[in-house]
Design the sequence.
């Protein structure tokens, strides 16, 4: 009998399930065949026989007795896959044999004893065997035994209640041991254990308390996670996801679960960042001190002495704007990966520091704030304007002073260092750049791509919004690239999108480009939104600096979509209640929708009309 | 089918015939008529050589391991690809894996099959089980130019050559060894569904997510990445034990596709 013949037979029985048991009986005699391939096929077939819905349950139960002698030989097979499948079959047959003994007593005692002996030999492999597939099969067998032994009856002629309960309890403790064990973590074993334990907790509520307590006692910080620098953050991410998904069905019953999950998630994120930082700091690139900023002007010739001190004292503001741009573009094109990253990190760090300082300044209450009425403060909040906190040199920023809304704290921080003289020179220099950039668009494109891949979005969007001439070709191309980078993955890049659009809004006097970009973003995002994205979408609408009537009316389509209408109506309600500048447009739209039969907006229309 | 087994052939010199047996053999050769001493000695050597049953005998750290070949793994392991609508990403991966000889099926985790319609807010919605052929004919009749331009007709034409209709994950009762989802949401659905089924069939399954964007270009690239992953799995002598290593190597080379992994049970 060859595997090809058996495959043919299998196809026949799949077409005619009544012949499944006939094929099983024909296969059993060749199960101990020396050919490994044949044994593997037989093991796979028998395992599938007990899983297929095509065969009647009574036939499966009757076949158990015939299968045990075969399993006896397979438990110590040299081929690990055969052993794994044998344990899987055992996990399938044991509850059937148990139920037979439970119902009919002595008639099936021998079969039951045989299955218990097989269980014992299989479970010995749990700790002794190195094969992960066998361990995983043993974990499942242990769960099945625990589950089966929950069904007991006092004074049964064959089943010893005390012994079976003790066995079940011991196996459950062994399963749960992984959550207290400090040995190196094997993710597949952890995943298998969590899944079987949660299934056990859901089906047996009286065991749920014990299982959940043990799982919540799992302290990842005490466990050594082995593996490469890539594997470790990966495993941490998987663990976070595993617990999130597995504990979800129990979260309503146990209020401590959400808190535990939040803690676990925070730990996994921190560890991933820490490991990444360690990895980056351990690389052998030379460090350049970028903390010490130059105080006084330095000659241009310092550039040619690329030692640390001279580079640190170089004063870039002395360069002409066009020259600085040419140097920056050609430099960015050729700079090495590590060096570029290091410099970008330094700039990002400086921006964050500035933001922190600004935030501290803003936190201190001024006498003006104290003297203001609470109603005024509420009015400010409702109009979504940032309270005025002009920097000392705000008078030297002609392009910002015209805007009716003040830039965010982040936007402030970046400008403060620049002296008034350079700002005055900015106008003509930018015009010059408009002439230069289209000619060297290809080179610029290359540089921008490099920056986009490595620099923080905050920095790139700032450069694009303020560093390039208004309406220049380079600017349009850059915005398109940023759009393509951020919008398709809008769920994870959500903060970056807000940052980018805010930059565009605050950098330009002409808002046409801003509205065009917002319109495109909303058009692109709307069809992809699912009900779960409701919060994200509302946050996007609330954090955008300005929304016009056209954008508000884009919500109409989603409100009429029966599956996702809830997102649209929630967003409109939110805008009406918390974003007064666009309240009128939203109310108009809401009225139209109510007329069209969207009843969920009726209450908000009545209230604010 | 070819199979490689690490064979350990003991060195005969290490099992020399002891002196007292040699003496007996010499006596025997003198007494018996035909057989010379050398032939008796070689027979004795063969009878004395015991097969290496314990690893200590040959100073081996581990007993000889059976190495399985990729072709055998390809026959043994059942793959499954899953996306939201069982149209684009899962079907492209299905096609690529099938063409390379894998045992593969594909499913969708959504409640309905959604295809791009004439506008963003008017998708073409079908129930799972509607034949690809029927969808193809209907859309062709509605607006051939539009659906050819957005690639839907081309995609449906490919799909109807692979299988009859889109299938829903929640309703399927097959067993797989490796399930590859193309979106984190589908990964969550598959894992939650397996958990809700109660793991009654006791069969372990590796559920892996490879995040692929839902467009034709990315689906084609993603399918090639999935094929690479599947090849790495079948090339492994023990895919169960090496799954984490395989995935971390995959992640290193395909940073564009963030992965997720769980070991669940059917």
Sequence:
């Amino acid at each position: 009998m060859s595997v090809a013949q058996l495959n043919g037979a299998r196809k026949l029985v799949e077409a005619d399930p009544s012949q499944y048991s006939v094929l099983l009986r024909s296969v059993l005699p060749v199960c101990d065949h020396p050919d490994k391939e044949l044994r593997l096929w037989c093991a796979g077939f028998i395992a599938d026989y007990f899983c297929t819905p095509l065969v009647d349950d009574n036939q499966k139960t009757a076949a158990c007795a015939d299968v045990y002698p075969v399993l006896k030989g397979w438990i110590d097979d040299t081929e690990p896959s055969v052993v794994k499948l044998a344990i899987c079959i055992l996990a399938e047959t044991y509850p059937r044999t148990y139920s037979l003994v439970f119902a009919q007593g002595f008639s099936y005692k021998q079969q039951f004893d045989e299955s218990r002996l097989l269980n014992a030999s299989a479970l010995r492999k749990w700790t002794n065997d190195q094969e992960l597939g066998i361990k995983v099969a043993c974990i499942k067998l242990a769960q099945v035994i625990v589950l089966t032994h929950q069904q007991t009856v006092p004074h049964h002629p064959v089943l010893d209640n005390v012994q079976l309960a003790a066995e079940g309890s011991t196996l459950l403790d062994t399963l749960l041991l992984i959550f207290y064990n400090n040995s190196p973590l094997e993710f597949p074993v952890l995943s298998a254990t969590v899944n079987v334990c949660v299934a056990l907790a859901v089906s047996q509520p009286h065991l749920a308390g014990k299982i959940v307590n043990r799982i919540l006692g799992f302290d990842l910080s005490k466990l050594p996670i082995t593996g490469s620098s890539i594997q470790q953050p990966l495993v941490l991410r998987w663990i976070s996801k595993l617990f999130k998904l597995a504990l979800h069905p129990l979260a309503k019953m146990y209020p401590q679960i959400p808190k535990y999950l939040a803690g676990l998630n925070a730990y996994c994120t921190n560890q991933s960042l820490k490991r990444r930082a360690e990895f980056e700091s351990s690389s052998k690139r030379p460090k350049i001190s970028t903390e010490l900023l130059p105080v006084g002007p330095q000659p241009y010739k310092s550039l040619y002495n690329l030692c640390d001190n001279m580079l640190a004292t170089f004063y870039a503001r002395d360069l002409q704007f066009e020259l600085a741009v040419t140097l920056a573009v050609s430099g960015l094109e050729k700079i090495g990966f590590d060096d570029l990253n290091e410099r970008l990190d330094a700039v990002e760090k400086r921006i964050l520091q500035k933001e922190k300082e600004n935030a501290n300044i803003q936190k201190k209450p001024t006498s003006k704030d104290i003297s203001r009425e609470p109603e005024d403060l509420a009015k400010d909040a409702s109009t979504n304007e940032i309270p005025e906190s002009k920097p000392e040199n705000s008078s030297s920023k002609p392009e910002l002073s015209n805007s009716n809304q003040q830039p965010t704290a982040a936007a402030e921080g970046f400008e403060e260092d620049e002296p008034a003289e350079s700002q005055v020179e900015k106008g003509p220099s930018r015009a010059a750049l408009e002439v230069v950039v289209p000619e060297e668009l290809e080179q610029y494109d290359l540089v921008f791509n490099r920056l986009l891949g490595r620099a923080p979005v905050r920095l790139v969007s700032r450069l694009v919004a303020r560093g390039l001439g208004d309406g220049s070709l380079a600017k349009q191309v850059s915005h398109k690239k940023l759009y393509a980078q951020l919008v398709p993955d809008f769920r994870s890049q959500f903060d970056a999108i807000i940052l980018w659009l805010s930059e565009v809004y605050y950098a330009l006097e002409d808002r046409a480009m801003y509205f065009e970009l917002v319109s495109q973003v909303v058009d692109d995002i709307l069809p992809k939104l699912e009900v779960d994205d409701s919060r994200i979408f509302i946050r996007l609408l609330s954090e955008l600096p300005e929304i016009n009537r056209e954008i508000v009316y884009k919500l109409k389509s989603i409100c009429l979509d029966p599956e996702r209408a809830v997102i649209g109506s929630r967003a409109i309600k939110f805008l009406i209640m918390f974003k007064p500048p666009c309240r009128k447009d939203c109310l108009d739209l809401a009225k139209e929708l109510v007329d069209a039969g969207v009843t969920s907006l009726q209450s908000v229309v009545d209230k604010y009309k | 089918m070819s199979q490689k087994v690490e064979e350990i052939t003991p060195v005969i010199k290490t099992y020399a015939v002891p002196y007292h047996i040699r003496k007996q053999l010499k006596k025997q050769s003198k007494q018996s008529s035909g057989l010379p001493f050398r032939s008796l000695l070689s027979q004795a050597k063969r009878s004395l050589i015991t097969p290496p049953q314990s690893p200590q005998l040959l100073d081996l750290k581990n007993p000889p391991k059976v190495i399985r070949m990729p072709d055998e793994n390809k026959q043994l392991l059942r793959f499954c690809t899953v996306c939201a609508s069982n149209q684009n990403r899962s079907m492209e991966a299905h096609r690529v894996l099938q063409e390379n000889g894998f045992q593969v099926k594909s499913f969708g985790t959504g409640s309905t099959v959604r295809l791009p319609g004439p506008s963003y807010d008017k998708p073409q919605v079908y129930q799972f089980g509607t034949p690809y052929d029927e969808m193809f004919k209907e859309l062709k009749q509605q607006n051939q130019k539009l659906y050819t331009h957005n690639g839907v007709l081309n995609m449906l034409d490919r799909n109807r050559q692979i299988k009859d209709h889109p299938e829903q994950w929640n309703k399927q009762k097959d067993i797989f060894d490796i399930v590859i989802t193309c979106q984190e949401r589908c990964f969550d659905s598959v894992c939650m569904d397996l958990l809700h089924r109660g793991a009654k069939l006791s069969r372990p399954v590796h559920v892996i997510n490879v995040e692929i964007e839902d467009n034709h270009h990315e689906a084609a690239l993603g399918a090639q990445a999935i094929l690479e992953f599947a090849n790495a799995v079948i090339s492994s002598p023990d895919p169960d034990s090496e799954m984490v290593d395989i995935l971390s190597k995959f992640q290193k080379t395909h940073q564009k596709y963030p992965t997720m992994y769980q070991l669940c049970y059917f």
Summary: Residues 9-15, 49-67 of chain B have pLDDT under 50 and may be disordered. The beta strands of chain B are 4-5, 66-67, 78-83, 103-108, 113-115, 124-126, 178-181, 204-210, 259-265.
